[in-house]
Specification:
By secondary structure, the chain is α+β, with helices and mostly antiparallel strands. Helices cover 24% and strands 20% of the residues. The strands form 6 sheets. Strands 12-19-11-18-16-17 form a 6-stranded mixed beta sheet, with helices on both faces. It has a 5-stranded mixed beta sheet with strand order 7-8-9-1-10, sandwiched between helices. Helix 8 runs antiparallel to helix 10.
Length: 556
């Protein structure tokens, strides 16, 4: 298990708020900052055994700086390290750094612009080369290279004048203060300069298929379409590893995934976890630990706003009114998820509880479309200005509950004169260019918008984050609202939690009004593992159940 330590510093209330904001505080669990290396406990025994994690989607992107999806994070967190990590309570802890920089300890200047990071001196890459500040500099510079297919450049694009003071110290200047940056750095894994600097095109480097990190596990083998195997890093500086092998097994059918959990073929169920229809049976299984864990992710009916069918707000309002959320949650998901009107998780300090609650009404949906001039054609599908109200909906193949939701919505939309066809794809195809370059009409998707516990959602909702229009981000709905842009920019420069709260409350109001996505419910994960596994702790501030796999072990 990870050891937690507490800072002995004594802050005033004002200082505390400012420090918390700098650390992504007032996020999901109002984070704190640690100045002692909590991820620095050396394993005291020889790794033993293996743990098989069952995943319904296949990990395919192994360079953690490149565009990827949530299921890839399990591998990234196990093979690589970041300067900092965030724990289940929202506490930002040192990882490759020896302390979390603050204004109090001099790591961050009073104006938030100058940063100084002190690094560990006992870290080595999996090939034996020493980790140094040069690797951090190389990583931060690679992220913002124009031709590199970065996952996220928000925040990093503000970094200027990176200077390696010594092998264990690095400094930089921020172009402007960016409150969420510490939280961003908890998900920015450092890559080896001595390997990637030799590559003419890092997008296609051999490293991307057989990565070398500093993490608790080394790359082992990959069998495409089946599994990824990692092996223990016996020279790891931090907690663990306590097992010899960590295996991520790809099982695309959720029913088969659950069956293999019951039979013992897999030891721990990863994303997308145990489907809610199996919860009642699963929690009674002998020698299994099955729990309900609130997640930061939410499920939505996600729209591509550049499609002519969805450009009018009235169409989006009508579609939303035609969705019977209660029937979906109770009938298909056995009441496990929680209905929501926003992307912000309920447990967040920034969750806006005052948003309008969706009211299911087929009649109202029809009235909205009638008033907007969408007239039923001969085939009963509504038409306006030559555009038929017809579109395709996609999601990951092999998810029976989502497929049932699609079938339900298909029928519900037909009642109001809307045609929805279903076209599902394997995860590797679905979440590749099809998703990242907005080649879909609509999708059903589970998304996590927060970074760590910080509320900044620039990467998802700012108009500069539209990848299909040359932006660097995940605004795949191609949503544009100048007021939202302005608020997000203001929020990123604001350090006071209460002031930020007002900003993100307003962002949620605008997004709820504009409906670039139709929010369905906040995810409650049904997580399960064998009773003998120790250290498997859920962390709502990360996107993966394997965030601390280095600390997993089997009971003696």
């Amino acid at each position: 298990m990870t050891k937690h330590s507490k800072s002995a510093s004594s802050y005033s209330r004002r200082d505390t708020l400012r420090m918390m904001a700098l650390g992504g505080a007032a996020g999901i669990f109002a984070p704190h900052l640690l100045t002692k290396p909590a991820f620095g406990q050396k394993a005291a025994r020889t790794p033993k055994g293996r743990i098989v994690v069952g995943l319904s989607q296949e990990p395919t992107v192994f360079n953690p700086l490149m565009a990827h999806i949530e299921v890839d994070d399990g591998v990234h967190f196990s093979v690589f390290d970041a300067l900092f990590r965030i724990d289940p309570k929202g506490v930002i802890q040192p990882n490759l750094a020896v302390e979390v920089p603050t204004q109090k300890n001099g790591g961050i200047s009073e104006d938030g612009l100058k940063w100084r990071i002190r690094l560990r001196d006992d870290v080595r890459w999996h090939d034996g080369k020493p980790f140094t500040a040069e690797d951090v500099k190389f990583t931060l510079e690679l992220i913002t290279k124009p031709n590199f297919r970065s996952w996220r450049t928000t925040g990093h694009s503000l970094v200027r004048d990176i200077a390696v003071v010594s092998p264990v110290e690095i400094t930089w200047r921020m172009e402007q203060a960016f409150a969420p940056y510490l939280s961003f750095l908890t998900e920015t894994f450092v890559v080896p300069k001595h390997i990637l600097e030799k590559e003419a095109d890092p997008n296609n480097a051999a490293f991307n298929q057989a990565p070398i990190g500093t993490g608790a596990f080394k790359w082992g083998t990959r069998v495409p379409g089946d599994r990824v195997e990692l092996v223990a890093n016996s020279n790891y500086f931090g907690d663990g590893p306590y097992i010899e092998r960590l295996i991520f097994k790809y099982i695309p059918d959720l029913t088969v995934l659950y069956t293999q959990f019951k039979s013992g073929d897999i030891d721990l169920v990863g994303q997308t976890y145990i489907s809610p229809d199996h919860y009642e049976e699963a929690r009674k299984l002998p020698s299994r630990v099955v729990t309900l864990e609130p997640k930061s992710s939410f499920e939505s009916f996600y729209l591509n706003l550049e499609r002519p069918q969805f450009k009018e707000l009235q169409v989006r309002q009508a579609l939303y009114a035609a969705i019977d959320k209660k029937a979906i949650i109770d009938g298909l998901y056995y009441g496990v998820p929680t209905p929501t009107e926003t992307f912000m998780p309920r447990q967040s300090f920034y969750y806006n509880p005052g948003l309008p609650v969706q009211e299911f009404s087929v009649k109202r949906a029809q009235q909205i479309l009638d008033a907007a001039g969408w007239v039923p054609g001969k085939d009963r599908i509504r038409v306006k200005d030559g555009v038929r109200l017809s579109f395709t909906n996609s999601t990951t193949s092999g998810d029976p509950l989502r497929e049932q939701v699609q079938q339900y919505l298909q029928q519900a939309f037909a009642e109001i004169g809307v045609e929805m066809t279903i076209s599902n794809l394997p995860a590797a195809v679905m979440w590749g260019e099809f998703w990242q370059r907005s080649r879909f009409d609509s999708v059903i998707v589970g998304s996590t918008y927060l970074i760590g516990a910080d509320p900044d959602v620039t990467n998802r909702l700012h108009s500069n984050a539209i990848g299909n229009k040359g932006g660097r981000g995940s605004n795949n709905a191609q949503y544009v609202n100048p007021e939202v842009d302005s608020l997000l920019e203001k929020g990123s420069r604001t350090f006071d939690p209460e002031a930020r709260r007002a900003i993100y409350f307003r962002v949620q109001e605008l997004v709820r009004h504009d409906l670039p996505l139709l929010p369905l419910y906040q995810n409650i994960a049904v997580q399960g593992h064998k009773k003998g596994i120790q250290g498997a702790v859920s962390n709502g501030n990360t996107r993966t159940e394997s965030w601390n796999a280095g600390a997993w072990s089997w009971a003696s």
